[in-house]
Amino acid sequence: MEANGVVEGNGDGAEEAGCFDIGSLGRCLSSFVDEGSPESHRYYLSRRTLFEMLRDRGYSVPSSEIGQSLQEFRAIHGQNPDIDRLKFSATHKSDPSKGYGSSWMLVIFCGTGVVKVSSVRVIAAQIVNRGSLTGLILILQNQITNQALKAVDLFTFKVEMFQITDLLVNITKHVLKPKHEVMSEREKQKLLKKYSIEEKQLPRLLKKDAIVKYYGLEKGQVVKVTHTGDITESHVTSRCVW
After folding, report:
1. What is the pTM of this model?
2. Which residues form a coiled coil (predicted)?
């Protein structure tokens, strides 16, 4: 019935209107709570970002790994994953024009302790077929000593290091991040010729920039950056790694 402009009812239409009782609301909210271990969640997120990163660099990565759910990851690795089982490798898609051939990348997760020289020796022992190894990616969860860094520098292949906390989110997917596309050497030379400029005259990207690290870029490589927005029209710039 209606009284003083207020409609009274028996509540049967509450759910149809999108309302729930306290019990239903509690169950709904609990579905968003992760009751698993923080460690397994952290490993899951960082490993997924790594697979996406290697895919974006041109490596062959199984879609099943990228699409794997947290529940599936925990079913395989448990609540306290063994870091040795998290190790994986990926082979670059053969493209002679880019000079990659049958090269491959190895990814190794380090433990939660400080990475020392002894840790580097253990890592070195895990590496086989070094001749075709493009590079090694180490995932750190703590500091690495200066002596360990010197030991890493002795490797004959490129070594990249990421803190695990920097991989919990894929930065290239951020809505505020402009689109970045790595130019080939041919595209770079065409750009320089078009504007009659030298490499050093291009806007710069520092080696420590997150995008540079994500794509594993080297000094002299050029990135095409496309900015889009609701207020301003899209525009394109080119930046050189320095």
Report:
1. 0.81
2. none
Pair type for strands 133-140 and 104-109: parallel
Closest CA to 53 of 71, 65, 68: 65
The residue among 89, 137, 139, 147 whose CA lies nearest residue 117 is 147
pLDDT tens digits in sequence order for the chain, 242 residues long: 444 444 444 444 444 444 456 666 555 545 557 789 999 999 999 999 999 999 999 999 999 999 999 999 999 999 999 999 999 999 988 654 444 445 889 999 999 999 999 999 999 998 887 777 889 999 999 999 999 999 999 999 999 999 999 999 999 998 788 899 999 999 999 999 999 999 999 999 999 999 999 999 999 999 999 988 776 678 899 999 99
- What is the pairing mode between strands 6-7 and 88-91? unpaired
Q: How far is CA 167 from the centre of its chain?
A: 5
